[in-house]
Amino acid sequence: MKKLLILLFLPVQLAFAQQPVTLEECYQLTRENYPNLKKAELFQEISMLNKENISTNHLPQVSLNGQATYQSDVTKVDISMPNVSVPSVSKDQYKAYAEFRQSIWDGGLTAANQQLEDAVLKSNLSELEVELYKLNEQVTQAFFTILAMKQQNEVLEAQKKVLQEKLRMVQSGIRNQTVEKSAAFSIEAEIITLEQNELQLETGKDAALKMLSILTGEEITSVAESKLQKTETGDNAKIVRPELQLFSNQMAQMETQKNLLDKKRNPKMFGFGQAGYGKPGLNMLSDKFDTYYLVGVGVSWNPFDWKQTERQKQVLQLRQEMVQQQENTFSQNIQLLLAQQSGQIEKLKKMLEKDEKLVELKTAITKATASKLKNGTINSADFVRDVQAETIAKLNRELHDIQLKEAIEKQRIIQGKVAEAKVISDQSQ
């Protein structure tokens, strides 16, 4: 019974494995399969641990200490009075004590450090998102290579069937001795040529499928036809690239660092205390072991840092200007790429219009040539030549069709419209 269930379930698994995948599915699978994606969890865990350490600044700091000393001299009272004995301190002294310090107000330093940790996490995740987004280009190239070779192979297969049908007709004439044997040679040679081309296309498609399988981590055997996507061009094209978010997060991080520098200059208020056992205790004139304690409140403030903070803030400001220049350069390069891609799309659209007309004409010519071949008014070599011309026209049409879809998809990638639902962004909330 168990074997029967396995056999029944196996075809379902195979059917699922061979299900054609869409381009969007490939994008998502590639992101999930990318090894560096695990760095997002590591970044978040590191940030959480750092923030927990920072939060301990509000907790009392306790230290245990002990010491034993011998000193060459001690304080003495050199007064001689009748019937009065003035005690003196021993030269050997001992002390064991616990010391604590409790922050009352740290000038906002702890909160500023936690804000900086959040800013660093966002920058790290943004850098990883930029790295992940670049995978889309590899996926797109492999995906459309598979589609192009698949469709071109279908054209070759259709043309081969036409030639095989004509070959059967010519072979029938040869058997009836109405056609010479050499008439079949041109058709047979063209069929072999088509089969060689099919083999090359199949090899290229297998290589692209293997590349896509490595990227996605799934065994990809076929891909689904990609439909033309709507894209915005010109001034209406909104750019949502992850690099822009990275620049924004880097600017925010440096702004947070400026705030932290200001907080470091604020006065700090703290409580402190000490409790211990030693000889002497707090009574310096006693030569006995005794317990003791003391508590108090303190304030610390360094009003002069010789403009160190000001210079550090100037350095951060200069770095912000550098990031701003990087963003401006990046935006300019994106506009250049979009302009080039728009030109490529328009060119392919016009070429496709010409391809459609050319295919119609070549198909009509081939039909007329096929009729002449049947009537014996032309030889097979003339027919093969026209079939070749029709095949080239159809191959160009299919190639330009895939190239147009790929160009439009690349335009979406340049604009940042691909995989806008960020996995990392969701995790970091």
From TrEMBL:
Gene3D superfamilies: Outer membrane efflux proteins (OEP) (1.20.1600.10). Residues 1-17 form the signal peptide. It is found in: Cell outer membrane. One of its GO terms (molecular function) is porin activity. One of its GO terms (cellular component) is efflux pump complex. The keyword Signal applies. The keyword Protein biosynthesis does not apply. Keywords: Cell outer membrane, Membrane, Signal, Transmembrane, Transmembrane beta strand, Transport. Belongs to the outer membrane factor (OMF) (TC 1.B.17) family. This is Outer membrane protein TolC.
